[in-house]
Specification:
elongated, Rossmann fold, alpha/beta, Calcium-transporting ATPase, cytoplasmic domain N, 7-stranded mixed sheet, 6-stranded antiparallel sheet, 381 residues
């Protein structure tokens, strides 16, 4: 009876059950025990920019009609109306910003047809009888549409301010641009700083242009910025960090992030993201707060500590109790009665379960900042 390994069997599952329960109550859904254990092993983390480090609520900030646009009779309102119509069927956040910008200005959509989304580039559509492209400079270049030097300077100036400029072309000519900006989340900088303090490498991944990406990277003090990345290539940047021998996590919110989330050693989805991202990830931050990555690390570290404590106690119990029950101390007149053995076995199981429940004491510390985080940092090092 005393050799029954109940305590060993309970050592890990009880800690995992309590840990995942704490996470769920705090908006951190961890889907399996492996993910809970491995979160504290994180050596590098890649954040998607839009909707993860930023609020995911971009808004129109600038509308600029180029010379060709003015000759075609396009003022700022008409340019935005054309761009919004072309983007009407797009699911991209930047497209939604342009459409909302037109609605805010009470600009109705024009007749349109033949909509086509171009991955990593933009959209093409027939708008009121005209062939319209809305998207990146690369998209226009691929369709043999060139910008004038003054237009390139206008574009570069907006990008240097951290804005995303969507170029608009009509019938083979660049006619203007619509600039969109998405505010960085209030807690993103603190999240990055604390991750770096832990010795975790931080990178940012975005399909946005290099200038805009670098602006956000400087604002958040992110050293590695991967810009102008196509959705199909995001997983390759995860592989790049993994090839450096780093246990790599990926945090994203969109369909475009699904392959990268699956490739990562640990995929973390933002709760406000798409169903595909949430389904692919191993952990979900329901509050969509970057700081919850740190809370997940704290929880993982505390849970693993409890697992080790439980396994140690269960092993010590069996190492000591089994020889005693077998009579190793009989020559000294000590013999373990069966009822004592039963009580000892029960006590070991109760001890393991109680120790796991004590994990709840970490719950109030999950969201504390740097002072509480120092102990986790020293453990991680």
């Amino acid at each position: 009876m005393i050799a029954c390994p109940d305590a060993l069997g309970l050592a890990t599952p009880t800690a995992v059950a309590v840990g995942t329960g704490i996470g769920a109550r705090n908006g951190i859904l961890i889907k399996n025990a492996t993910a809970l254990e491995q979160t504290s092993n994180m050596q590098a983390i890649i954040f998607d920019k839009t909707g993860t480090l930023t609020e995911g609520k971009p808004a129109v900030t600038n509308i600029v009609a180029f010379a060709a646009g003015k000759l075609a009779g396009l003022d700022e309102a008409r340019l935005l109306q054309v761009a919004a119509t072309a983007e009407a069927d797009s699911e991209h956040p930047l497209a939604s910003a342009i459409v909302e910008g037109a609605k805010d200005r009470q600009l109705a959509l024009l007749p349109y047809s033949q909509f086509q989304a171009i991955a990593g580039g933009g959209v093409q559509a027939q708008v009121d009888g005209d062939t319209v492209f809305v998207g990146t400079p690369k998209l226009l270049a691929e369709n043999h549409i060139q910008l004038q030097p003054a237009e390139q300077e206008e574009l570069a100036a907006l990008q240097a301010e951290g804005k995303t400029a969507m170029l608009v072309a009509m019938n083979g000519q660049a006619v203007g641009l619509v600039a969109v900006a998405d505010r960085v989340r209030a807690t993103s900088r603190e999240t990055i700083a604390q991750l770096k303090a832990l010795g975790i490498g931080v990178a940012m991944l975005t399909g946005d242009n290099q200038r805009t990406a670098e602006f956000v990277g400087r604002e958040l003090d992110i050293d590695r910025v991967f810009a102008e990345v196509l959705p199909s290539d995001k997983a390759n940047y995860v592989k790049q960090l993994q090839s450096e021998g780093l246990f790599t996590a990926m945090v994203g919110d969109g369909v475009n992030d699904a392959l990268a989330l699956a490739q990562a050693d640990l995929g973390i989805a933002i709760g406000a993201g798409t169903g595909v991202a949430i389904e692919t990830a191993e952990a979900v931050l329901m509050r969509s707060a970057p700081l919850d990555v740190l809370a997940a690390i704290r929880l993982s570290k505390a849970t693993v500590t409890k697992m080790k404590q439980n396994l140690f106690w269960a092993a010590i119990y069996n190492v000591i109790a089994i020889p005693v029950a077998a009579g190793v101390l009989y020559p000294f007149g000590i013999l373990l009665a069966p009822e004592v053995g039963a009580l000892a076995m029960s006590a070991s199981s109760i001890t393991v379960a109680t120790n796991a429940v004590l994990l709840k004491s970490v719950e109030k510390k999950l969201r504390h900042s740097s002072n509480e985080f120092d102990s986790v940092r020293s453990d991680h090092a």
